[in-house]
Structure formats: structure tokens, C-alpha cells
Amino acid sequence: MAAPVWAHAQDSVRVALPTVRVTGTREGPRAPLELPYAVTLHRPDSLAALRRTGVDELLFGVPGVALANRQNPAQDPRVSIRGFGARSAFGVRGVRVLQDGVPVTLPDGQTPVDALDLEGTDRVEVVRGSASSLYGNAAGGVIDLRSALASRLFTPYARIVAGANTPTVSAAGASGTVRDVGITSSLTRIVGRGYRDYSDQRVTRAAMRMVLAGSDGDGPAPLALSARISDVSRAESPGALTRAQFDANPQQYDPQSYLKGASKTVQQEDVSLVAARALGAGARIDASVFGGARVLNNPTTQAIIDVKRASGGASMKVSEHGALDGHDARISAGVDAQWLNDDRQEYTNCIGVTTCAGGVTVRGTQNKNQRELVGSVGPYARAELALLPTVLASAGVRSDAVNFRLRDRLITATNPDDSGERTLNAVSPSAGLVWRATPLWSVYGSVSSSFDTPTTTELGNKEDGSSGINPSLQPQRATNLEVGSKGFFVGTGVRWDIAVFEANVHDELVPFDIPNGNGRRFYRNAGRTVRRGGELGVDAESGPVALHAAYEYSHYRYVSYVVGTTSYAGRRIPGIPEQALMTSASLNALDMRFSATADLAGPADVDDANTAQAPGRAVFGLAVSREVSVGGARFSPLVALQNVGGVRYAGSLSVNATAGKFYEPAPGRTLLVRVTVGAMGR
């Protein structure tokens, strides 16, 4: 952390400002009180992130962030901010995801989070709403997973987590410093079936990070090299259920998913190099280059999909902090560039079919053989000026161009060339104002615009079944208004932030299924939607007691949206409960640590017509742990009981699905045991 910052309050008492800094900004590390948008610095709760099998576990308790774990190892958890990305059929949409400042999100806006280094993540920075305008192709916000700093001495550790109806997680790693290079590494193995039938998985993840000394933990080091490897050799997909199936037996699989062998195998490798250098007093240049490769085999109920992917990009940013006519000023400018090259093959799924074209038992007729190329470029600039010592005004703008190209290689006399190209552009301005009412309290307001393009898959899944790029599907564009306040209560250990927002969206991307579509997701644009809501986060710590609470109110509605002759104007946007509260508490007593969590939410609509709702939830967790020193090693056993009341609820929803298959059940009462050995405090 940075050294404490001293300031004089209005009563002239000298107080030490908290040393919290946000690194995921476009002009360098900043105190949250200086920023005109909602931002949360979060250390994953030890009980909620007990297993670290999905990114949703690391985000429990962040205001404005809705989490949906499908309990499906073949599909990523759904993470949304202010409703953006809530209806993603796969991966994370509408939210920009970074790892140590390097994009994981691809240039078309999709984020495959199965390759993230969850084991090595020490803290998470979440920027909600308007600030996403300077990151491009994300209307909801930005999530940046930050790795733990290397220890000075060689420090190994190992942990294992096991329980009923949950895969066993084994992890090991080490941290240390060799000369001027800090090194962290981890290896994770996830094996076994989950809560649902037909949910077996075999996953291996490895990560290593080498950082040249010179970082104080608040910003990029002079040089950092990171590498990640993920191997998913088995991940079964139990699918979503109807309400009748959900009520009868939530652990069962969808018969069609089982019959068609719905699952995936994935191998992915990623590497990145980040560098920073001071250019003089108050000036700095940051640059990064990154790349990756991915091989996916994905049998679904409607097709068998093979994808070989290469992707990469680079970014550069110059920032300066100085004075302008006697006023404190900051300016930054940069450019992001990314590319994606997918070799996609699709075949008829003949699994479970006694007769299939050509007598093939797994892959039938080839329906697609194409190259999908995406490139994006986004220059941006941001400036900030202290109009008064306590008033900061800022403005920024970003210009994005996202180019989609499709090269069809399946051309016959009856199947014409479906090659095509589209470029989607957007200019996203933003402006904000911050008033530092006291050194420990600020009030802010901001306005911005942002956009989301359809992904390559969304552009390629045309309702009429034809190939090629959908010429009518447009990006969704949002105008965001936000006011809020952040602060610290001196001497109480209480930190809080509150935000009220409105997002007006044009051409919102809406998923839907069609009869006989075998679960394939299609997309169309709604006319207009509006999202109004509020968020409150509170952290309190006093002696052995720590409390945290995050509340969100989400009033999301269609303003104008007509399908055929049916108007959905005034209907609730599905997939998000109107109210949600996440809390956690811990107590250190009797040489032990007692922890508790509560996850409360109201019902959520399952479709655009609001014909049915998934029930709300009131889910509680308890844990007790202790650290014991034996022979120079530290053992940390923990016993946890999740969903203490055995509540039956849907952890995720498949919005607008056909045949009423909306519900993806969450686990019932689950007993978990974790044992950690080492000196890393995990």
C-alpha cells in the first residue's frame, strides 16, 4: 500500500487518510474519493471464496454486481453490473474483465473467464457504470483482478477443499523474491461432480507471475511477465430445467443435454508483458502486449462446435500530473488495440442418434467451416482539473472501431458464399465532478455514454438458420447518469459508498430461442430500455469484529419493445431481482475465527413477457477456522456449512428459453472442509 496521506480537516485536527488506491484507472493509481464514479476495492471473502472455482466467488458482496452460478462446469458463471450482461448465454458480457490491468475480454466483448488465475488473486477492483466509457465495448463496468505481491522469502503453501455434492479442489503454490524479481506461482486441480447430475469436471490451472522490484503495490511495476494455462479435459453440461422438473428434483439433468452429450473440453494459454517508466516529474508511460491461444470442443444440443482461436493485443498510455495556471491538473491519453482469429467448424450433433448422415456416430453433416476475424482500435483521452482545492472536474472521450470479418470456406452449388464484413463504431464521451466536502468525504456526479457490440457468435446465429454476418443486428448504446458519495468515519473503522444511477439504452441486445432451435440462442435489438437503481456498500471493523454489507435496488424496464404484434413496454427486464442484499461478518475469539454470510434476493422474471418468476432466496453460510503452528508450519483447518437452511432456489436463469427451461438450480445444504498448510495465510 502507499504511504499514508495527511490532511487537515475543518476543525484543524490532523488526520491520516486511508491508504487505499485504485490502480485500474486511466491515469494511474488514485484514491477512490477523487474519482467521479462508483468504485469498489474488494478482498474476496474467505467464506464465499472458499473454493475459488469460479470468478463469482471472488465478487460476493460487491454493490451493484449480480452473480449467477449455473452449477454447470461447461458454462461460465454469469456476472453482471447494473443489469448489463445478466442474460449472457455464455461467458461474461457487458463487463470489461482485466487481470492485472491486461484485458481478458476479447475485442468483440465476450469474456471466457475459465482461464482466469483465481488462485493468485489477492484483491478485486470493480468500476461500475460510467467509467466503462474509457475502456470500450462494455456498458456495465470494469472488473480488474489483481494478483498478490510476492513475499520476500520463499513461501510455499497447499490447500484442499472437499465436501458432499461438490468437486474436490486441490491447490499448491509458492511465492518468493530472487534478487530483484518477485515470483508467485500456483497450480490448481478441480475433480468431481457438482450438485447436479451429469456435472462431472476435470480441470487443471497453472499460473506464474514475475515482477521486477520497484512497485509499491499500488501501480504497475517497471516490468511484469505473467503466464496462465488452463486445461479443461472434462466438463459436463446438465442444462436448464422446467419449473416442474425444478420442483420435482433440482439435481436432475435436462434429458436432451444428457442425450446429446452436451459438454466441453478446453485448452488455453495466455501470456502478457506489462512495463511502466517515469518520463519525468509527474509523467509516466505504461505499455502492455499480450496474446493467447484456445482450443475448444463443445458438443451442444444443437451442434458440435470446434474452435481454434488465436488472440492478442497491445496498449499504451501516457499520463502526466502537474499544475495548470496554479491549479492541480492531470491528463492521460492512450490507445488499445486487439485482434481475434477464430477457426470455427460446426457439425450436426449425432450423439445418441442411431442413424445419421454418412453413418457418422458423433459428427454428422458439416454446417459451418469459416474463419472469424475481429479487430478493434480505441484511442482515448482524459483530463482532470482542480477548479478549487476541493473541487475536481474531469472529462474524457474514447473512439472505438470494431471490425468483424467472416471468411466462408463451406461453399457448394447449394450453399453460396456467406463471407461478409461489418465495422461498428462508437464515440463515447464522459464528464464528472467531485467535491471533497472533507478530507474523508466526497460527493460526485457524472454523465457518460457507452456501447456493446454483438459478439461473433451473436452476429452469426441468424434466426432463419443461414450462415454469414447478421446485417440487421446493431450494438446497444447507453447514456449513463450517476450521482453518489463516498467516505470514511474517523475513528470508527467504517467505510461507505452510495450511488444512484440511470442508464438509458437504445437497441438493447435481447436473447431469445425459437421452436425447434434445440436451445440455440439468437439475438435481436429492443427499442429502448431504462435502468434506474441505487447501490450501498458499508464496511466496518472494530477490534476482533468485521462487518460488510452490499445492497442494490434495480428498477429495470422496457420503454419501447415490440415483437410481432406484442408490446413489452413497461415490462421488467428479466434475469435480475429488484432487490438484493449480501452481507458477511467475522469474529476472532478464543483463538478461532467465526464467519457468516447472508445472500438475500427477491424473485426475478424469466422472460420478457414476465409470465413467470424464479423464487427469491435467503441463503446463509457459517464457518469456523483456526490457525495452528506445528514444527514451523502453519495449519489452517476450516469447516463451513453453506445454505444452512437448505433453501431451494435457482442460482441462474436461462432467460427467454423455449419449452420453459428457465431454471438452473443452486446447491442445497453443503458441508465443506478446507485444510491449508503453509505461511501464505490462505
Characteristic key phrases:
5-stranded mixed beta sheet; mainly beta; Maltoporin, Chain A; 40 strands; disordered N terminus; about 675 residues
Question: What's the gist of this structure?
Answer:
This protein has 682 residues and is mainly β. 3% of the residues lie in helices and 57% in strands.
Description:
The protein has 682 residues and is mostly beta strands. The protein has a single domain, classed as Maltoporin, Chain A (Beta Barrel). Helix content is 3%, strand content 57%. It has a 22-stranded antiparallel β-barrel. Strands 3-8-9-6-7 form a five-stranded mixed β-sheet, with no helix packed on it. A two-stranded antiparallel ribbon has the order 1-2. Strand 31 and strand 32 form a beta hairpin.
Structural class: mainly beta
Low confidence ranges: 1-18
Strand content: over 45%
Give the count of structural domains: 1
Mean of pLDDT: 89
- Give the end-to-end Cα distance, rounded to a whole number of Å: 20 Å
Give me the secondary-structure topology:
Elements: E1 5-8, E2 14-17, E3 38-42, H1 55-58, E4 65-68, E5 78-81, E6 95-99, E7 102-103, E8 121-128, E9 141-147, E10 155-163, E11 168-178, E12 181-193, E13 200-212, E14 223-235, H2 243-248, H3 255-259, E15 265-280, E16 283-299, E17 304-324, E18 327-349, E19 363-388, E20 391-408, E21 420-438, E22 441-452, H4 456-460, E23 476-489, E24 494-506, E25 509-512, E26 522-525, E27 528-542, E28 545-560, E29 562-563, E30 566-567, E31 579-589, E32 592-601, E33 604-605, E34 613-614, E35 617-625, E36 628-630, E37 633-642, E38 650-653, E39 663-665, E40 670-678
Parallel strand pairs: 6-9
Antiparallel strand pairs: 1-2, 3-8, 4-5, 6-7, 8-9, 10-11, 10-40, 11-12, 12-13, 13-14, 14-15, 15-16, 16-17, 17-18, 18-19, 19-20, 20-21, 21-22, 22-23, 23-24, 24-27, 25-26, 27-28, 28-31, 29-30, 31-32, 32-35, 33-34, 35-37, 36-37, 37-40, 38-39
